[in-house]
Amino acid sequence: MNGAVLLAIAIIGEVVATSFLKASNGFTELVPTLVVVIGYAITFYFFSLALQTIPVGIAYGIWSGSGIVLIALIAYFAHGQTLDLPALIGMGLIIAGVMVINLFSQSSPH
Chain-wide mean pLDDT for the chain? Predict the structure, then answer.
């Protein structure tokens, strides 16, 4: 499987797992806790596979940046978290950084 696809699966797993952390209520609710544990297991498994073809610095930058933006959007829509102008500008800069890495970096997995 392509490194970018493996990284995308890792990002999705991390976003799902992190989204359920609040619902796990400190790991006292069984189903959300299982989603968190399984989600992070999937995340780190596929992230480790992605690192076979993508440099760790590039992969981690894409993974963490994408995760930050996706989690913030989920928190906005699902939990009513507000996103003020500085938060939106910051997320825009994160997205721009991930795009620069993917489009222009010689280190990125094209």
Answer: 92
